[in-house]
Write a structure and sequence with these properties.
Strand order of the largest sheet: 29-30-31-32-33-34-35-36
Helix content: under 10%
Pfam families: Sortilin-Vps10, Sortilin_C
CATH topology of one domain: Wheat Germ Agglutinin (Isolectin 2), domain 1
GO cellular component, one term: Golgi apparatus
Largest sheet: 8 strands, antiparallel
Subcellular location: Membrane
Protein name: Vth2p
Shape: globular
Keywords: Glycoprotein, Membrane, Repeat, Signal, Transmembrane
Distance between the termini: 120 Å
CATH architecture of one domain: 2-Layer Sandwich
Structural class: mainly beta
Length: about 900
């Protein structure tokens, strides 16, 4: 009887104790270099830093060595590469050998192969794959004298195979001129009209880099042309989704060419400057894009050095771009703090730099059209009603520590990240674990401290382990998990402390198993830790279409104000997601859930400008210049029929019944539309009458000027005005339409560079210099070395020949107004860095273009000389940035430049 009672008591206690998953720890000899978790399988390949391979068939619970004859002896495997379109194929490329290996059964067996002419692989992208034929592969690398991969005389080579290097096939060279190639079907969304054997290559032709297309493996080819002319100086090209993008030099003024079918190419149009060229680009990055819009991040002249870029999104053809987001955070090597949410159309998360030190996180639900800060759902404990305390900022691509995506997974609508609330992103070691259950609409702090995190069983299980390496601690033995999407947590203990490095699960997040790669705290030995939640629940979740089962209908995006489901691309997306309080497992192994859709009535956002139409400043689709010239070949008073200017975005599923119909045809009276190409003249027909337009400004206009015209700006009539409220305004059409310049900034002064007519410099009272090289269409900002001096409004002087040589007058030490120091600083790189020139001066100028030749570094200054309670100004000069100086006049009023002379006003006993 006692035994029965004791057994019953144990059963009751067991129901109250948290579930302990099965944990298996395996020691490795070497740390991780690379890893493949094959899609829709439990097979994992582990690539060690010594070049050896291990394989697991049970999600990392047990491992076996992979025997590759001769690989270890010759330096081991250098690259382990998974085939993106066939989850049974992987390649192991050797480091110092001409023998390489391929598996077609997820690593169960391997065969060796050789590649002719390749002794060193392209480190960025050694292999290119074909979406429809897994036996097609392109290898990019170099051929080296005597097979020595370290030789300085290596020559670029590209080799292809149509048999996966089977049966003594060592591949065939794609000519001697190619040095980078991709299949025309290298992405899953590539256009089906592209020939199956199409290959795109960069070639050296006639001492120029050109892009060429071949459909017969370069036995013949056609170079890419625009308007019938070969495109020279192609810097590089890339692919994303269905788009092909090429960058054309010179490197300081890059143009983008785009295509979706590899036969028709066009220059990308960027309406911010009215040209196809993005002025003074130092770098650009192709970002993850949707099927219907290309996303690129552009670093303008020097902005990459500041860690900034600009995000642009295109129309469905990839040839017309709109600015989406300024000041996006990016690294010098092109990484951008931007990620699209997996499985849901149009949600993008990006970090932006508000200034040199402040990074904040924004989210877009409409593919980059509009952005907002991330919101904490309930922020009473984080600062009450202060809205800045109710925003969360998250670490993204630039300091990502795990493998795979950062914020999202295949778990429907569940996003996570490490960050903090407030007005700026703090150091990652100070971050906490935040989670969103509604695709990023609202966020909640679910655990303190930075963590590695992962989702399993379609979001049914959230696992997290503290990032102890970030905190410089000696590891952790505690793992936490949540079964209700982060609302409550359970924990279990490992048998010893570990320092975690990577946490992952099956690529589709459908299993209940996790794999943690870590090192032992006590001896720093690498280990894998398999964590298995099988048996967590006894019952499998039941799906019922009426919602009465364990799943509920959940929409992927909601309006932040109305909380109602919203549309994108003409439809609402929804999932059947497990109810948060259902105690069951989803268990649909290797079958992740994809979104279902409900069509919406068509709205204006479902349309884009039709072929040969562009967006005017008023937001209307109008004929471009070339098309308008054709349309004007008519007799006055007659009518002609043309497109309305609008077309439904490809892939858009909206219903015109009950919605807007903007596409189709329209009849136009000849002569009624005289203008096109972005509506430069507002579409007004010339009628011989003087037109006026009234614009009201706050306060008084205290400063205004025209920008001089040059050969590149003959159609631009730019005026800049500043009012007494420290605001500035700009117009590009002689004052018809005005835009506020640097909205939210207090303007200290504005000036243009007299030697380079398109350059505008704006100083703001937060000690920033905002520089435009495209007549005020866009600005990059740099930090000034000293505060703006109110009495001078900030002063910038320009070198007559060297565009990036600047002198700035500012003040320091003004915490005490009696200790202010006025000084001059100089920059020779456009303000990216500054050096002290000289103190106690009221004006400094570069000197040049005089009658007699001078040193290009010659600078004149008015130097303040204190004598007791009086002071005088001396005119001094230097040719070595005032390491030495020459005094020309002891007492001056000032100096000025007149033609090829310097005019100096001096003080004598008799006066001036």
């Amino acid at each position: 009887m006692r035994l029965l009672l004791w057994s019953a008591l144990v059963s009751v206690i067991t129901l109250c104790v948290a579930f302990d998953p099965k944990v298996t720890v395996t020691d490795f000899d070497q740390p991780l270099q690379g890893l493949i978790y094959f899609q829709d399988s439990s097979v994992v390949l582990y690539h060690s830093s010594d070049g050896s391979l291990k394989r697991s068939e049970d999600d990392g619970a047990s491992w076996k060595d992979v025997k590759l004859e001769g690989a270890k002896r010759n330096g081991g495997i250098q690259h382990l590469i998974e085939h993106p379109f066939d989850n049974s194929i992987a390649y192991a490329l050797s480091a110092n050998s001409d023998t390489h290996f391929i598996t077609t059964d997820q690593g169960s067996t391997w065969r060796s192969f050789k590649i002719q002419s390749i002794n060193r692989f392209n480190p960025g992208r050694p292999l290119s794959f074909h979406k429809s034929n897994s036996r097609y592969v392109i290898v990019s690398g170099a051929e080296c004298p005597n097979g020595n991969p370290y030789s300085a005389q290596c020559v670029d080579r590209v080799v292809y195979s149509t048999s996966n290097f089977e049966n003594s096939d060592h591949g065939s060279r794609l000519g001697d001129k190619a040095f980078r190639c991709e299949w025309g079907h290298t992405n899953k969304d590539s256009d089906d009209s592209i020939p199956q054997d199409a290959i795109l290559c960069l070639l050296e032709v006639d001492n120029s880099r050109r892009l060429a297309l071949s459909t017969d493996f370069f036995r013949s080819y056609e170079t890419i042309k625009i308007d019938g002319k070969d495109v020279d100086n192609v810097l590089d090209f890339g692919t994303m989704s269905k788009f092909f993008v090429a960058a054309v030099g010179p490197e300081t003024d890059i143009s983008l060419l785009t295509s979706v079918d590899l036969t028709k190419w066009s220059e990308g149009s960027f309406p911010d400057d009215g040209k196809s060229t993005i002025n003074h680009v130092s770098a650009f990055t192709i970002l993850e894009s949707s099927k219907h819009s290309l996303h690129i991040n552009v670093a303008h002249d020097g902005s990459s050095k500041l860690g900034e870029g600009t995000l642009y999104t295109s129309n469905s053809k990839g040839n017309y771009f709109k600015k989406s987001l300024d000041h996006t955070s990016r690294s010098n090597d092109g990484l951008v703090d931007t990620e699209s949410v997996e499985g849901i159309d149009g949600i993008v998360i990006s970090n932006v730099k508000e200034n040199e030190h402040n990074v904040r996180t924004k989210i877009s639900y409409d593919d980059g059209r509009t952005w907002s800060y991330l919101s904490v759902g309930d922020c009473k404990d984080l600062g009450g009603s202060n809205p800045n305390r109710c925003n969360v900022n998250l670490h993204a691509v630039l300091d990502h520590k795990n493998i795979g995506r950062i914020f999202s997974s295949p778990a429907p609508g569940i996003l996570a990240g490490i960050g903090n609330t407030g007005r700026k992103l703090e150091d990652r070691s100070k971050g906490d674990f935040y989670l969103s259950q509604d695709s990023g609409l609202t966020w909640k702090r679910v655990y303190r401290g930075p963590h590695f995190y992962e989702f399993a069983d379609q979001g049914n299980i959230v696992l997290a382990i503290k990032d102890t390496e970030e905190g410089k601690k000696d590891g952790t033995d505690e793992v936490v998990y949540s079964l209700d999407r982060g609302n409550t947590w359970e924990k279990f203990k490992l048998k010893e402390k570990f320092i975690p490095h990577f946490l992952l699960t099956t690529p589709d997040a459908t299993s209940s198993k996790f794999l943690l790669l870590a090192t032992r705290s006590k001896n720093k030995k690498p280990v894998s830790i398999a964590i298995d939640f099988d048996g967590l629940y006894k019952d499998k979740c039941v799906m019922k279409d009426d919602g009465s089962g364990d799943f509920e209908k959940w929409y992927a995006r909601y309006d932040p104000d109305t909380k109602e489901p919203t549309c994108i691309l003409g439809h609402k997306q929804f999932f059947w997601r497990k109810k948060i309080d259902s105690r069951c497992y989803v268990g649909d192994l290797y079958h992740e859930q994809f979104a279902s859709t409900e069509d919406c009535p068509c709205a204006e956002v479902d349309y884009e400008c039709d072929e040969r139409f562009v967006l005017s400043p008023e937001g209307q689709c109008v004929p471009n210049r070339d098309y308008l010239k054709e349309l004007k070949q008519c007799k006055t008073g007659e009518t002609y029929e043309r497109s309305t200017g609008y077309a439904l975005i490809p892939g858009n599923t909206c219903k015109k019944d009950g919605g807007k119909t903007l596409d189709g045809k329209k009849s136009v009276v000849c002569g009624s539309e005289e203008n096109g190409d972005n509506g430069d003249d507002n579409g007004d027909k010339a009628d011989g009458k003087i037109k006026s337009h009234r614009n009201l400004f706050n306060g008084e206009i205290v400063n205004y000027f025209y920008l001089p015209l040059d050969k590149d700006s003959v159609d631009d009539e730019t005026i800049i005005a500043q009012n007494s409220y420290d605001e500035a305004f700009i117009t590009h059409d002689q004052g018809l339409n005005w835009d506020k310049l640097l909205d939210g900034k207090e303007i200290a002064s504005i000036t243009s560079n007299p030697n380079f007519p398109n350059d505008v410099y704006v100083l703001t009272f937060d000690s920033q210099l905002h520089i435009s090289t495209d007549r005020g269409h866009s600005f990059n900002n740099v930090k000034l070395p000293a505060n703006v001096a109110p009495q001078y409004g900030g002063s910038i002087d320009f070198h007559p020949k060297n565009r990036e040589w600047l002198i700035y007058m500012g003040e320091t030490g003004c915490d005490n107004p009696f200790s202010c120091k006025l000084g001059a600083y100089y920059s020779t790189n456009g303000g990216k860095s500054w050096d002290k020139l000289v103190e106690d001066v009221t004006r400094c100028s570069w000197v040049g273009q005089l009658l007699h030749k001078t040193d290009e570094k010659l600078i004149f200054c008015n130097h303040i000389v204190s004598e007791g309670f009086t002071a005088r100004k001396a005119l001094v000069s230097s040719e070595d940035y005032f390491k030495t100086k020459t005094t020309h006049f002891d007492s001056v009023v000032g100096y000025a430049f007149q033609s090829e002379f310097i005019v100096v006003a001096t003080v004598s006993i008799d006066g001036i």
